[in-house]
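We modelled the chain as a single entity of 341 amino acids. Its sequence is:
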Amino acid sequence: MTPADSPATPALAPATFSQSALPLVAIMGPTASGKSALAIALAEKLSGEVVACDSTQVYRGFDIGTAKPSVAERSGIPHHMIDVVSPAEVFTAGEYRNRAVQVLEDLRHRGRLPIFTVGTGLYFRALMDGLADAPPRSNRLRLRLSAMQARRGAASLHRLLRRLDPAAAERISSNDHQKLVRALEVCFLAGKPLTEVHQAGRQGLQGYMALKIGLNPPRQGLYRRIEQRVSGMLDSGWGEEVARLLAEGAPPTAKPFEFIGYRELSVCAAAGQPLSSAIPAIAQATRRYAKRQLTWFRRDSGIHWFSAFGDAPETLAAVLEYLEGPLNSWRIGQSSMASAV
């Protein structure tokens, strides 16, 4: 197997790899493409540890539907950025960056290679490129905005944003309450439009060079895996997990219950319908999500693509071959610098 041909994603030649920067491997691809399996295999070969980059896997208790690696897999290879907050907590890209930087520092001290499994492209971009210097959340302002929406109608927030930041209003759907509130929050607290805040300079991650691996398996094969995964998750007790979370006091309005599958199963449970009736809707929503993930990742010209699943032995061999050049170049550079000291 050879890397997928793509003139926009050339192989990273050893000569372009900064010898002073630490290597960081990032595996990107749609859900069910085998990112975790490839990351674990690479970690075993390259003395690495896995760092999850997924907005769903940070929540404790939401295990089956978010496809977290099993306890056995995590005991063999250390995993980070999984089960870090409770279901009721708000977790943002900024919080992910702060915590992931701490993880990187720990791995650097211990001489371990960071291997990221990237399902949420926004989180990885926040880590590598930094975030705009935007004001923190204001619960008081958010309550006022929600009250205004309740009085004036669902479209009132979008109308207000059109007046304050027309460019942001063009990008944000009138149905995306969370993004509308954040955009307005920034406008009021920063005293300038969100668009202007985002255009200001950002401080990216210093001292690391990302080696980006993209998984783009055949579309029909991916869809079959998605359907099999959904059925397998239900057989593994996904419905029971949802019931347990609610029984243990997880708020039904908590963010994780908006995730694909959890919302459908919650509706079925509330209506007294068999959970299996949710399979088609969950599979369809997951396929659409996989398309959105690929659309996001394809914007990054630095990703080197492989047209296969990550758990295929030939994929591991091809990725190791691809990484050999830049990793060896870095090791030689480190040895040369050590000798010169």
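As a brief sanity check on the tokenised model: Strands lie at 22-28, 48-53, 79-80, 113-118, 208-215, 303-306. The domain at 139-199 is CATH 1.10.20.140 (Histone, subunit A).
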